[in-house]
Amino acid sequence: MARHPLHPALVHFPIACWSLATAADFAGLWLGEAAWRWSAGLLAMGCAMAVAAMAAGLLELARVPEGRAMRDAYAHMSAMLLALILFGARLALGLDGLRPLAPDALSLLLDAAGFALLVLGGWFGAKLVYHHGVGQNGHAPAGACRAIK
Protein backbone atom coordinates (compact mmCIF):
# COMPACT_ATOMS: atom_id res chain seq x y z
CA MET A 1 0.00 0.00 0.00
CA ALA A 2 1.46 3.34 -1.03
CA ARG A 3 1.52 6.08 1.54
CA HIS A 4 0.07 9.50 0.83
CA PRO A 5 2.75 12.21 0.96
CA LEU A 6 2.26 14.70 3.80
CA HIS A 7 3.87 17.70 2.09
CA PRO A 8 0.96 18.42 -0.32
CA ALA A 9 -1.51 18.33 2.55
CA LEU A 10 0.42 20.97 4.52
CA VAL A 11 1.38 23.49 1.83
CA HIS A 12 -2.10 24.98 1.57
CA PHE A 13 -1.83 26.58 4.99
CA PRO A 14 1.23 28.81 4.39
CA ILE A 15 0.00 29.62 0.89
CA ALA A 16 -3.39 30.77 2.21
CA CYS A 17 -2.02 32.57 5.27
CA TRP A 18 0.75 34.42 3.42
CA SER A 19 -1.56 35.36 0.55
CA LEU A 20 -4.20 36.70 2.94
CA ALA A 21 -1.58 38.57 4.99
CA THR A 22 -0.29 40.25 1.84
CA ALA A 23 -3.84 41.14 0.81
CA ALA A 24 -4.60 42.47 4.31
CA ASP A 25 -1.52 44.69 4.33
CA PHE A 26 -2.28 46.17 0.92
CA ALA A 27 -5.98 46.52 1.75
CA GLY A 28 -4.87 48.44 4.83
CA LEU A 29 -3.79 51.26 2.52
CA TRP A 30 -7.50 51.92 1.88
CA LEU A 31 -9.28 50.31 4.82
CA GLY A 32 -6.82 51.07 7.61
CA GLU A 33 -6.35 48.98 10.72
CA ALA A 34 -9.52 46.97 10.10
CA ALA A 35 -7.61 45.22 7.31
CA TRP A 36 -3.94 45.11 8.37
CA ARG A 37 -4.51 44.05 11.98
CA TRP A 38 -5.05 40.48 10.72
CA SER A 39 -1.68 40.37 9.00
CA ALA A 40 0.56 39.49 11.98
CA GLY A 41 -1.48 36.45 13.00
CA LEU A 42 -1.68 35.24 9.42
CA LEU A 43 2.07 35.71 8.94
CA ALA A 44 2.85 33.85 12.17
CA MET A 45 0.57 30.93 11.29
CA GLY A 46 1.92 30.87 7.73
CA CYS A 47 5.52 30.76 8.93
CA ALA A 48 4.81 28.02 11.47
CA MET A 49 2.98 25.88 8.92
CA ALA A 50 5.68 26.55 6.32
CA VAL A 51 8.27 25.03 8.64
CA ALA A 52 6.10 21.92 8.99
CA ALA A 53 5.51 21.75 5.22
CA MET A 54 9.22 22.19 4.53
CA ALA A 55 10.14 19.43 6.97
CA ALA A 56 7.68 17.10 5.25
CA GLY A 57 9.04 18.14 1.86
CA LEU A 58 12.60 17.33 2.93
CA LEU A 59 11.49 13.86 4.00
CA GLU A 60 9.90 13.32 0.60
CA LEU A 61 12.89 14.66 -1.35
CA ALA A 62 14.28 11.13 -1.67
CA ARG A 63 11.33 10.28 -3.94
CA VAL A 64 12.35 12.90 -6.53
CA PRO A 65 14.21 11.39 -9.48
CA GLU A 66 17.63 12.77 -10.39
CA GLY A 67 18.00 15.15 -13.32
CA ARG A 68 15.56 17.90 -14.29
CA ALA A 69 13.06 16.90 -11.61
CA MET A 70 15.69 17.31 -8.89
CA ARG A 71 16.74 20.70 -10.30
CA ASP A 72 13.09 21.79 -10.21
CA ALA A 73 12.84 20.49 -6.64
CA TYR A 74 15.84 22.62 -5.63
CA ALA A 75 14.31 25.65 -7.38
CA HIS A 76 11.02 24.99 -5.53
CA MET A 77 12.81 24.64 -2.19
CA SER A 78 14.91 27.76 -2.75
CA ALA A 79 11.95 29.95 -3.68
CA MET A 80 9.90 28.73 -0.72
CA LEU A 81 12.78 29.15 1.73
CA LEU A 82 13.32 32.71 0.51
CA ALA A 83 9.58 33.35 0.85
CA LEU A 84 9.73 32.09 4.45
CA ILE A 85 12.68 34.39 5.17
CA LEU A 86 10.92 37.42 3.67
CA PHE A 87 7.59 36.76 5.39
CA GLY A 88 9.42 36.04 8.65
CA ALA A 89 11.26 39.35 8.32
CA ARG A 90 7.96 41.07 7.55
CA LEU A 91 6.49 39.61 10.72
CA ALA A 92 9.48 40.54 12.88
CA LEU A 93 9.65 44.10 11.58
CA GLY A 94 5.89 44.55 11.91
CA LEU A 95 5.70 43.91 15.63
CA ASP A 96 6.29 46.16 18.58
CA GLY A 97 6.63 43.53 21.28
CA LEU A 98 3.55 41.47 20.49
CA ARG A 99 1.56 44.43 19.14
CA PRO A 100 1.24 44.58 15.34
CA LEU A 101 2.26 47.78 13.60
CA ALA A 102 0.73 49.37 10.52
CA PRO A 103 2.57 48.25 7.40
CA ASP A 104 5.07 50.73 6.01
CA ALA A 105 6.80 50.81 2.61
CA LEU A 106 9.35 48.16 3.66
CA SER A 107 6.56 45.88 4.94
CA LEU A 108 4.71 46.14 1.64
CA LEU A 109 7.92 45.49 -0.30
CA LEU A 110 8.59 42.36 1.80
CA ASP A 111 4.98 41.25 1.24
CA ALA A 112 5.21 41.75 -2.52
CA ALA A 113 8.60 40.02 -2.86
CA GLY A 114 7.52 37.16 -0.59
CA PHE A 115 4.31 36.71 -2.56
CA ALA A 116 6.21 36.69 -5.87
CA LEU A 117 8.51 33.96 -4.50
CA LEU A 118 5.49 32.07 -3.19
CA VAL A 119 3.99 32.06 -6.70
CA LEU A 120 7.31 31.05 -8.29
CA GLY A 121 7.84 28.27 -5.74
CA GLY A 122 4.29 27.07 -6.28
CA TRP A 123 4.87 26.95 -10.03
CA PHE A 124 7.93 24.74 -9.53
CA GLY A 125 5.99 22.57 -7.07
CA ALA A 126 3.20 22.10 -9.59
CA LYS A 127 5.79 21.30 -12.26
CA LEU A 128 7.16 18.55 -10.01
CA VAL A 129 3.73 16.97 -9.72
CA TYR A 130 2.19 17.54 -13.15
CA HIS A 131 5.27 17.35 -15.37
CA HIS A 132 7.61 15.03 -13.49
CA GLY A 133 4.93 12.95 -11.75
CA VAL A 134 6.46 13.34 -8.28
CA GLY A 135 4.10 12.11 -5.56
CA GLN A 136 1.89 10.29 -8.03
CA ASN A 137 2.63 6.81 -6.54
CA GLY A 138 3.41 5.40 -9.94
CA HIS A 139 0.26 6.84 -11.51
CA ALA A 140 1.79 9.75 -13.39
CA PRO A 141 -0.46 11.68 -15.76
CA ALA A 142 -0.07 10.93 -19.46
CA GLY A 143 3.09 12.51 -20.78
CA ALA A 144 4.65 12.97 -17.35
CA CYS A 145 8.34 12.21 -17.20
CA ARG A 146 9.15 9.93 -14.27
CA ALA A 147 12.94 10.04 -14.43
CA ILE A 148 14.43 12.58 -16.78
CA LYS A 149 18.21 12.39 -16.89
UniProtKB/TrEMBL annotation:
**Membrane-spanning ranges:** 39-61, 73-93, 105-126
Top-level taxon in the UniProt lineage: Bacteria
Key words of the record = Membrane, Transmembrane, Transmembrane helix
Keyword Transmembrane helix recorded: yes
Q: Is the keyword Endoplasmic reticulum in the record?
A: no
InterPro entries annotated for this entry? DUF2231_TM
Q: Name one Pfam family in it.
A: DUF2231
Report the residue ranges that make up the DUF2231 domain in this protein: 3-136
Return the protein name.
DUF2231 domain-containing protein
Q: Which organism is it from?
A: Parapusillimonas granuli
